[in-house]
Design goal:
single chain, about 300 residues, alpha/beta, Arc Repressor Mutant, subunit A, D-Maltodextrin-Binding Protein, domain 2, 9-stranded mixed beta sheet, two-stranded antiparallel sheet, 11 helices, 11 strands, about 45% helix, globular
Length: about 300
């Protein structure tokens, strides 16, 4: 029976996500490649590891045994890397980081550049993930650090404050709504909408359904700036980070109205399993991004 570390990370990602599709995405594999590897693991082990259904995938008894040992193995590998890194000299190191849409597009580009410049022997493997998936990945050992919204259940992870992350509605300055002091998501759902692609939009979509109707945008764009530019023309209303909206307003005529929903006033948190388990590079980046005490 041969399982490599990639197999174990994939299997745990599937178990934690409850879905082969989402698990494959968490470890940057296509659905076809992930399915083939999982079938290979079951053939090598001589037992079914997953129960596959229309609502997702869950571990069998054998799968639960594998998940238990896989977590222990990956934890030991992480500890080994931490100890070896203390003795390494001149070795190129990579910090594995997962982050939310707002962190990747607004906070990290400005903050992380000076740290990378000061640490030329360290690379950062950065991927965008919804905060819920990031928490599961950090707990499993699939990544070193995560930047998540404080709206998510952190569980037993170590967390520190990074930055505020308030969401606002953006629209043309001539739109009647532009003079409002605040607005709810439910009110916006009655209007033409401009959407994002990515983790933040998934979060907004979930709250829209809770408010009583789906978020149906006329178009979805990849960046906050793209949403702001289209919204400024009067084509619809978008929801973006307040930091991004204020930055974009310097270059265009843009109305900005805060969302009054409680879930829209968030904080970005840095998280890891235990700071003492981090290798030196990851610990340095955590300290640099937060520069404050644990919460």
């Amino acid at each position: 029976m041969r399982f490599d570390l990639g197999d174990l990370r994939l299997f745990l990602a599937v178990v934690d996500a409850g879905s082969i599709t989402h698990g494959a995405a968490a470890v940057n594999l296509s659905l076809a490649a992930a399915s083939e590897r999982l079938l290979g693991m079951e053939a090598a082990g001589g037992a079914a590891l997953l129960v596959r259904g229309r609502r997702g995938a869950s571990p069998t008894r054998a799968g639960e045994v594998l998940a238990h040992h896989a977590r222990a193995i990956l934890r030991q590998v992480s500890e080994m890397r931490t100890e070896l890194s203390e003795h390494a000299s001149g070795v190129h190191t990579t910090v594995r980081m997962l982050a939310s849409t707002a962190a990747i597009t607004e906070m990290l580009p400005e903050r992380i550049g000076p740290w990378l410049a000061a640490n030329p022997q360290i690379d950062v493997d950065l991927s965008e993930r919804p905060s819920v998936e990031t928490v599961k990945a950090i707990a499993t050992g699939l990544a070193d650090l995560g930047i998540v919204s404080d709206a998510v259940d952190i569980g037993a992870l170590h967390v520190r404050m990074c930055a505020p992350d308030r969401l606002v509605a953006v629209m043309a300055v001539q739109d009647p709504l532009a003079s409002a002091r605040r607005v709810t998501l439910a009110e916006l759902l009655e209007r033409p909408l401009i959407g994002l692609t990515g983790a933040l939009q998934s979060h907004i979509d979930d709250h829209a359904l809770r408010a009583g109707r789906p978020f149906r945008p006329r178009i979805r764009l990849r960046t906050f700036e793209g949403v702001c530019r289209v919204a400024a023309t009067g084509a619809g209303i978008g929801i973006v980070s307040e930091t991004a909206a204020r930055r974009c307003r310097r270059a265009m005529r843009l109305g900005i109205v805060p969302l009054s929903d409680a879930w829209a006033s968030r904080r970005l948190l840095a998280c890891c399993r235990e700071p003492q388990e981090l290798h030196r590079a990851a610990a340095s980046l955590l300290d640099y991004l937060t520069q404050g005490p644990a919460l």
